[in-house]
Design goal:
Helices cover 55% and strands 0% of the residues. It is an all-alpha fold. The longest helix has 21 residues.
């Protein structure tokens, strides 16, 4: 019962005062939800592309998948996958991955034992 309610909300059930959605848009939104709920080839391809950025860490991949699926639901509900917009699952996956990994993943890795100048303690006077 709750699943049917969620599907009705996310497929684009018109609210009062809004125009009803065309059947083609409803069908496209339902298809996007199906792809998000199952391991569709499109979702698998996004996961393959993101895995190296997440260092193939299974926990981080699962967290990414959950955030990615939530982003699909939100983008679908707001109409970003509709005909007037050009958002694809691949583009959304790249955006979520970039947001998820954050800027710290793009900083240079320092060799072991090296320290920044600001973290060095001044030597004690002898």
């Amino acid at each position: 019962m709750a699943g049917a309610l969620i599907v009705l909300l996310l497929v684009g059930r018109p609210t009062s005062g809004a125009e009803p959605l065309p059947e083609a848009t409803k069908a496209r939104r339902a298809e996007m939800l199906r792809m998000a709920d199952t391991d569709s080839p499109e979702v698998r391809e996004v996961m393959k592309r993101v895995a190296p950025a997440l260092e193939f860490n299974l926990r981080r991949l699962k967290q990414f998948l959950n955030v990615f699926r939530l982003s699909i639901y939100i983008a679908n509900h707001t109409g970003l996958f509709d005909a007037g917009h050009a958002l694809t699952l691949s583009q959304l996956g790249k955006f979520v991955a970039e947001s998820y990994t954050g800027p710290s993943r793009h900083q240079k890795v320092r060799p072991p034992g090296s320290r920044r100048a600001s973290t060095r303690r001044p030597s004690a006077p002898t």
